[in-house]
Amino acid sequence: MEVDPPNTALSPTTVVRPSHIPILINNAIEDKEKITVADGQEYLKRQREDDWIENRVARIEAQNGKLDKLRSDVKVEEAKLENLEREYKSEVARIKKRREFFTGCRSKLGAPGSRSNPGGEEVLETGHCAVIFGTHIHELMHSLGIIHEHSRPDRDDKLNISQAEVVRRGLQVDMGIDQWSTTTLLTPFDHGSVMAYDINHYEPQIMSAWDKDSDYTFGNRRVSFHDMYKVNKFYECSCPTELPCQNGGYTNPGDCSKCNCPRGWFGALCNEAPCGGSCVLIAKPEWQTKTVNSSYVFTGDNLDGFTSYFHHIQAPYGMTIEIKIEKLDNFICRSSCNHNGIEIKYRMDHMTTNPLICCLNEQQPFAQKVISSVKNPTVIEVYSKDRTEPAAATFSYRYIDESIRFG
Ligand SMILES: [Zn+2]
């Protein structure tokens, strides 16, 4: 695993960790947006046990799509607002709606009253942005004190940023290295963090990845394994007993009976293959082909809007797995691969997001080549986000004996 360089410029006390951030939701926010807000809180609640979500936040036990229940819960919540405000005074984060249609989505950094947000109150300004789950999590994470991935102190090792363009457009603050950067020390840089911008966020483009294969991974709105790990570590959320989690998992502070697992690993201890073992593809020396149909289906668990189809490709011990993507049917090819994509966990560090693929053309040249994996088994994920129309990915796989090839 990569290790971040130490950040000597800041002391750990630079950012004050809040013990709670009560959240009030502005009445002007529409039901559709409230569902996203509620799902976001539910998602975070499952990952960590801190009372930021569970006890002091005005509760919304919304189920995705159940507006009537949401409405009745919101009514209860509204009745509590006055008491909450009195109890917590200025330490109240508000999710509020802007009148303008497009104002961008933004949030103060850190809890209201903390050093990074001394006089602040709002968490998230909604509008078009709150209906995208990952964007909402992005803003909530700011309120938890988490900075942009492209503002980390080690970001220049990973990103090529045109400083001339930054200065010309007056983006020194947005694209600078953040002074509240202590939270970045807890995880390696992750191109797939929900805290990163799309490389085309600014036009003309002002940033790209040094690792070209990861260019389209920036801006993806899945919440990454490291995103949640970072929140849990920063808040020191833990369990009385640590489970023997495998494959990089760690005991889930939101439910101490199981581990939080890197994508593609299942079971309480992160040692189980997908689909109870029936989605394991056994590689042979000859190429074999697999087509994975992919479209978004709400399962009750995928609050983030993504439906993922996982497989493991397994080879005999010591063999090297090779994968080639043959065809992408009805895939949208666009930076950030947010509509659909494939992630092959072929790199040694499978906890950090590996390059996402959604194009089989010159936009992602590496995706047209044979990908050699150092992991056995290799996790392969095909996902769709909010797209219910059928799509499919076809790939081939085999194993080779490197000792013969290079012997
Ligand atoms: Zn942001």
UniProtKB/TrEMBL annotation:
Q: Give the highest taxon in the source lineage.
A: Eukaryota
The transmembrane segments are none
Give the residues the record marks as binding Zn(2+): H138, H142, H148
Query: Per its Swiss-Prot or TrEMBL entry, what cofactor is needed?
Result: Zn(2+)
Q: Which free-text remark accompanies the cofactor?
A: Binds 1 zinc ion per subunit.
Taking the record's annotation, the residue ranges forming a coiled coil are 60-98
Spell out the GO cellular component terms annotated for this protein, sorted alphabetically and separated by semicolons. extracellular space
Where does the record place the Peptidase M12A domain? 124-238
Q: Where in the cell is it found?
A: Secreted
Alphabetically, the GO molecular function entries are:
metalloendopeptidase activity; zinc ion binding
Name of the molecule in the record: Zinc metalloproteinase
The organism that produces this protein has a lineage beginning with: Eukaryota, Metazoa, Ecdysozoa, Nematoda, Chromadorea
